[in-house]
Amino acid sequence: MSAQNSQTQAWQALSRDHHLAPFSDVKQLAEKGPRIITQAKGVYLWDSEGNKILDAMAGLWCVAVGYGRDELAEVASRQMKQLPYYNLFFQTAHPPALELAKAIADLAPAGMNHVFFTGSGSEGNDTVLRMVRHYWALKGQPDKKVIIGRINGYHGSTVAGAALGGMSGMHQQGGVIPDIVHIPQPYWFGEGGDMTEADFGVWAAEQLERKILEVGENNVAAFIAEPIQGAGGVIIAPDTYWPKVKQILAKYDILFVADEVICGFGRTGQWFGTDYYDLEPDLMTIAKGLTSGYIPMGGVIVRDEVARVVSEGGDFNHGFTYSGHPVAAAVALENLRILRDEQIITQVQDKTAPYLQQRLRELADHPLVGEVRGLGMLGAIELVKDKASRTRYPGKGVGMICRQHCFDNGLIMRAVGDTMIIAPPLVISLAEIDELVAKTRKCLDLTYEAVR
Ligand SMILES: *Cc1c(COP(=O)(O)O)cnc(C)c1O
């Protein structure tokens, strides 16, 4: 056994004996042992066996500026030496959090000038749930507390995150809160049936109005949605969907919450997904790309009118020990500086995203591929048995087979059922996109061989 090998096995034993891994079948993981990731640079990871892996998921959608940016480590180190921690409770504050709030307000859509900081996206959505209900209570409409989410939406893993999200597996495991309801998702490939994409988009949007009328406008606090559903399978609504949703939102007195945890900070080629779709949210949840994942941080960007009502309502009894953590805020500020000064988002918009999308679509001719879709630095490949009828291979777990081939061939893609998804670092180069597409084709071939 090589030294490398025995070291890997020692770590795998620690995993088996002591670690309860998130979103994992822990028993199955114990048999196989996790892949141990030890280093990273740019868009690449290295594991403990020395394998180099192209990370087409940017970690968990978060490493926007790529791995190994020393500037982020340096500002963290400097901030830790100067003021490693202080809180924002009880009438104190510190420069990094305040300067970050201003920097975010400058990037956010007009009229959204306040930020509530959290430690994660889930905590951001917990904050959303409490803030919107508190807002309506302050306005003398305490009955407006129902929040409408979408089936298969993802809003995090705390109780509020799980309940706002529309994943039944999470609801079943202690993830339900009263007065949260869900409408169908705009997933044409999976659920469009015989409708055209355009008709299905309108239909899916109309479900929002139906639900508002069913619950009663006077009982609805907010609608929450991701501009593009990420964890649900990179679900990009038909072009007809968001314009129709916008019309419906304008008709009723309810708040709109855009969960920008994935789309925010450049993934669509705009600063926010709502910029891309020209939506006008009242609250936006942020995390992930805010710090490029170098350190945990999330938050909620709040429209001026909502901020005014909440501010005038006295104490909002809500906050986290690590809200606006100074080290996280310093890292976020530097991350935003890098995104801005290096014009990374402009480059995504003008150059790398169009190239990625064009190259990905070349995979549509593969016998296993039913659809390739994508937008900005997001992509999805639907694996099917029959293209025309969009029929899946029954009971084979094709997505998992493909994911394993990817792992074994130096590529990280994620499988959501039989949908392969990617969200590479925003800094991925044209040559690295070529490598990503070539590896993907190879893994599709291997998967096809295994299941045909
Ligand atoms: C990841 C994610 C969250 C949860 O963020 P955490 O930092 O994992 O708590 C919420 N919403 C969306 C859209 C996400 O992708």
Automatic annotation (TrEMBL):
The keyword Transferase applies. It holds the Pfam family Aminotran_3. It comes from the Bacteria. InterPro entries: Aminotrans_3, Aminotrans_3_PPA_site, PyrdxlP-dep_Trfase, PyrdxlP-dep_Trfase_major, PyrdxlP-dep_Trfase_small. One of its GO terms (molecular function) is transaminase activity. Keywords: Aminotransferase, Pyridoxal phosphate, Transferase. Its cofactor is pyridoxal 5'-phosphate. Transmembrane segments: none annotated. PROSITE patterns: AA_TRANSFER_CLASS_3. NCBIfam families: PRK07480.1. Belongs to the class-III pyridoxal-phosphate-dependent aminotransferase family. This is Aspartate aminotransferase family protein. It comes from Pseudomonas juntendi. The lineage of its organism: Bacteria, Pseudomonadati, Pseudomonadota, Gammaproteobacteria, Pseudomonadales.
